[in-house]
């Protein structure tokens, strides 16, 4: 799968950026160091000026690629969900048993992320931490409905639909497949956050992963 991923380009809605960062070495450096800087500072303290200083370039060069840091966050989170979608597609392509396919899908989407070196300019571990800590800031805005119409969240929605269809394949009579799918995706981020910061509020730990919890939850719901 790693070899296949190396030859793939994750396609992101071109409304999110002014110039495709994948089209130049500077653009890829902006993405690479933007991920590391947001992970270090947090999104609220991150600025394009600081990013320009990190890559030893003018702040204006970053603005040639992204209109503002909000759209930069949307770009990064879209890339993350697109990467997860590719992993999901490859990992489940040859699984024919619906239950086994669903469990594998949940494992892929909720597990602890490891850097796979498939994309040299992307630190997937740092990006995963950003998604856990900052993803909600990409859509908890007054502009969310307009941005949704522009297709800013299409990858996340498509991934949720894939999972919803797998849930329906296991139990076509289950009345809430979309709600369960979106709960698994959003809930996994929350459980990872709780595991790292509020351990008394979750049963997930080094011994019990969010993947185990959501597989258990889904199995019991669909078999009841």
From TrEMBL:
SUPFAM superfamilies, per database record: Homeodomain-like
Matches recorded under InterPro entries: Homeodomain-like_sf
Domain of life: Bacteria
Protein name as annotated: Uncharacterized protein
Native source organism of the sequence: Leeuwenhoekiella blandensis (strain CECT 7118 / CCUG 51940 / KCTC 22103 / MED217) (Flavobacterium sp. (strain MED217))
């Amino acid at each position: 799968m790693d070899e296949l991923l190396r030859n793939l380009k994750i396609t992101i809605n071109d409304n999110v950026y002014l110039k495709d960062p994948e089209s130049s070495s500077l653009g890829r450096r902006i993405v690479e160091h933007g991920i590391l800087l947001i992970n270090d500072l947090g999104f609220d303290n991150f600025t394009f000026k600081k990013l320009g200083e990190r890559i030893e370039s003018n702040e204006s060069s970053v603005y040639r690629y992204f209109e503002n840091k909000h759209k930069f966050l949307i770009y990064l989170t879209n890339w993350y969900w697109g990467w997860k979608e590719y992993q999901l597609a490859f990992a489940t392509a040859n699984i024919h048993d619906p239950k086994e396919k669903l469990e594998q899908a949940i494992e892929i989407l909720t597990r602890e992320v490891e850097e796979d070196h498939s994309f040299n300019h992307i630190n997937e571990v740092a990006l995963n931490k950003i998604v856990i800590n900052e993803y909600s800031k990409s859509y908890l805005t007054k502009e969310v409905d307009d941005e949704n119409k522009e297709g800013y969240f299409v990858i996340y929605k498509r991934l949720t639909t894939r999972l919803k269809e797998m849930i329906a394949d296991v139990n076509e009579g289950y009345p809430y497949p979309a709600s369960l799918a979106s709960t698994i995706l959003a809930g996994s981020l929350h459980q990872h956050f709780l595991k790292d910061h509020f351990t008394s509020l979750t049963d997930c730990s080094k011994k019990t992963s969010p993947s185990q919890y959501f597989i258990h939850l889904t199995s019991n719901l669909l078999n009841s």
